[in-house]
Design brief:
The chain is mainly alpha-helical. The chain contains 13 helices and three strands; from the N terminus they run ααβααββααααααααα. The protein is elongated. InterPro entries: RepA_N, WH_DNA-bd_sf.
């Protein structure tokens, strides 16, 4: 039987570890981040030891790493396609930024610090079009970016506040926060329209079981319930009108029971319309 391979006290300080920030597991901001992407983040952090040794930092002192995807895939024993997926996830969560060097040279990767506060977390979420713009920046433009790499105008601030409100509302209904969902939805629908459907979902959830809140919300946004209600009302009025006309016809063919028929017609009419006047013409 193989002898157990114990750690010795003098070996502890010399061990090499991959360090994953605890925030990636304790903060709601990173709840939906892929576990594989979190492990990759630790791998990229460890790579900064090489950056320190080689002095890889820009003019502002921001440390960057150079780590081709092929090498990452070989180190982690995963496919390049999976590496690309994990890198994309880290970009979406504001944990890395990349700058292309061109001429088949590997990208420069900036590993960014995770955030625990919602406000900071939101401003770190940089859309893909911004990444594309950064890829085409000159070296001077890149290094002159503000520390958080964001230039937020009033429109972006309002968008941030709207997203915060919607995420908080969704969290109150479902117990979950889904930043990515509302960033996407706000590109297609107005803030007021999304909030209206969230209020509807909240009311519906009080008396019905919703298994997929994201799917329910998406369906509610696609369907114009006002138009559906108008169609139902139009159809109902047509049925009421036809019924009323038939009752009037039967009254006319049975004059001997006019009083009885008229009383019955009035009763049925009131039951169908709730006392609302419906023109038989």
């Amino acid at each position: 039987m193989q002898e157990a391979n114990f750690y010795k006290i003098n070996e502890i300080d010399n061990m090499q570890f991959l360090i994953i920030p605890k925030t990636l597991f304790t903060s709601e901001n990173y709840r939906d981040l892929l576990d594989g992407a979190k492990l990759l983040y630790a791998v990229l952090l460890e790579r900064m030891q090489l950056s320190k040794k080689n002095g890889w930092a820009d003019e502002n002192g921001n440390v960057y790493i150079i780590y081709p995807r092929e090498e990452i895939a070989n180190f982690m024993k995963i496919s390049i396609k999976t590496v690309v997926r994990y890198m994309k996830a880290l970009k979406e969560y504001g944990l890395i930024l990349e700058k292309r060097q061109g001429l088949s040279r590997p990208n420069i990767i900036y590993v960014l610090k995770p955030y625990s506060r919602d406000e900071e977390f939101f401003t770190s979420r940089v859309d893909s079009d911004v990444h594309s713009r950064m890829d085409n920046m000159t070296k001077t433009e890149w290094t002159n970016l503000p520390p958080n790499h964001t230039n937020m105008n009033h429109t972006e601030i309002n968008k941030k506040n709207n997203t915060n409100t919607l995420v908080d509302k969704f969290h109150a209904i479902t117990g979950r926060r889904n930043w990515k969902l509302f960033v996407i939805l706000l590109k297609k629908y107005s803030y007021d329209y999304i909030l209206e459907k969230l209020n509807y979902m909240e009311m519906f959830a009080k008396s019905h079981l919703i298994r997929n809140f994201e799917g329910f919300l998406a369906s509610a946004l696609r369907d114009n319930y006002m138009t559906v209600a108008q169609k139902i009302e139009k159809t109902s009025r047509k049925v009421l009108l036809e019924t009323y006309q038939k009752l009037e016809y039967y009254r006319s063919v049975k004059p001997a029971s006019k009083e009885v028929a008229l009383a019955w017609i009035t009763l049925i009419k009131n039951q169908l319309t709730g006392g609302m006047e419906v023109c038989p013409c």
